[in-house]
Amino acid sequence: MDHPIRQAAHVTPSARQLAWQELEFTAFVHFGVNTFTDREWGEGTEDPAVFYPTGLDARQWVSVFRDAGMRGVILTAKHHDGFCLWPSRHTDHSVRQSPWKGGQGDVVRELSAACAEAGLKLGLYLSPWDRHEPTYGDSPAYNEHFRNQLRELLTEYGELYCLWFDGACGEGPNGKRQEYDWVSYYELIRELQPQACISICGPDVRWCGNEAGHCRESEWSVVPAYLSCQEVVAGKSQQADDPAFAQRVNTTDQDLGSREQIARARSLIWYPSEVDVSIRPGWFYHAGEDDRVKSLDHLLEIYYGSVGGNAVLLLNVPPDRRGLIHEVDAARLRELGGVLRRTFAHDLARGARASASEADAVHAASCAVDGKAETYWRPHEGTEQAWLELDLGREATFGCACLQECICEGQRVERCALEVRQAGRWRPIAAATTIGYKRLLRFPAVTARSVRLSILESRCRPTIAAFALYQSGD
């Protein structure tokens, strides 16, 4: 196990990271005073009276999200302007000071109840940058203030699947900048919500590197542990003064986890990618963008590249001034959900006769087509190239394949190819590099009875938990 590539092949996700990955498709909700001032970033000087949604209905939000196929929601409980969507006891800048519901409203609580009712997971965004709070820039005082607000959210709104931080750090109302005590924030989250992922500026989930919905061709979840914020959670705090750990991963780099990167690493971590993108040009609602909602084809392209590229898709859908998901956005999301349901309704490979170049005694070829996430095909120890062949029993037409590794064993596949047997010959139809949790391959529809997946390169013996085939639902 001394070789770094072998080590990388055996790095695995935590239980919280695995639960996060299995959500696949989630909603981001940017909502607050910016919704009513028609801005993207507020200044912290807004009158709380501007926040007055006339028909806020969190159940409507959740209904739209569920129809789209989303399984979780992250709400901007506080953006950079410092206005809190819950009646925080630690500020004069919240829904408590707004006329909405006579100052008795609580957006976080309403969304929490709606999510619980519909079976969606709830996450929260709490901006560390606060352009309203007077203690911002007085680092010890503001860090205590931030922990107080964080504690309210962690203890008063049920189970959270995620705390999302973007790390924004600008000037406060006093012109000063703040030194965030990330270690204490993380410790508080681990104490009060140990199952919650700490995302983006945190140790559990990383940013994909852009806000356009693009994913890397090779999206590795195993990367060098250069992020200093990893040290506390990964047990590396004793190395905080090591220059190697003072470096920071540039998440915009195209190569984060190749063999070359791994060979230079001092330590390795499981650090999966999240793709955050908005359904509109902006993140908050602007009436002038009602005709600029992303097309169905564009959303499908993003979905296949992110969910189907070993990442989780976090799609922002901002409520309007009524406090509702606008009709245009709602219609587009329901259209998207309809296509996804039709596409993935019937796995043509489920229960197919499966054979392989080899398999160990427990993990037979049939395990890749039994529909069970906990079972998988695996060749013998030491094998890095192998093939898995399916006999569908009859000819079938399909235009999409879903491949999944058993990431509880690690991420290993580096290159693979898909072929069909036609007129007595194997013909290539698709190829990919990494698989990871999920790889979705789209190709012109083909008709065949026999299909073969070839693992051409792998860091260790591969583990294939799913090999599924679907018709196109477009």
Account of the protein in words:
There is one protein chain. The protein is α/β, with parallel strands linked by helices and 474 residues long. The protein folds into two domains: 4-343, TIM Barrel (Alpha-Beta Barrel), CATH 3.20.20.80; 353-470, Galactose-binding domain-like (Jelly Rolls). 24% of the residues lie in helices and 24% in strands.
SSE-based structural type: alpha/beta
Gyration radius, rounded? 24 Å
Major β-sheet profile: 8 strands, parallel
State the end-to-end CA separation: 46 Å
> What is the level-2 CATH architecture name of the largest domain?
Alpha-Beta Barrel
> Class of the largest domain, according to the CATH hierarchy?
Alpha Beta
Q: What's the number of extended β-strand segments?
A: 16
What's the CATH H-level superfamily name of the largest domain? Glycosidases
Spatial ordering of strands, largest sheet: 5-4-3-2-1-10-9-6
Helix content: 10-25%
Range of strand content = 15-25%
Shape: globular
Write the CATH fold name of the largest domain: TIM Barrel
> Count the helices. How many?
12
- Average per-residue pLDDT, rounded, comes to 93
Number of discrete domains: 2
Q: Looking at the chains present, what oligomeric state does this protein adopt?
A: single chain
SSE pattern? HHEHHEHEHEHEEEHHHEEHEHEEEEEE
Features:
single chain; 474 residues; alpha/beta; TIM Barrel; Jelly Rolls; 2 domains; 12 helices; 16 strands; 24% strand
What's a concise summary of this model?
The chain has twelve helices and 16 strands. It is α/β, with parallel strands linked by helices.
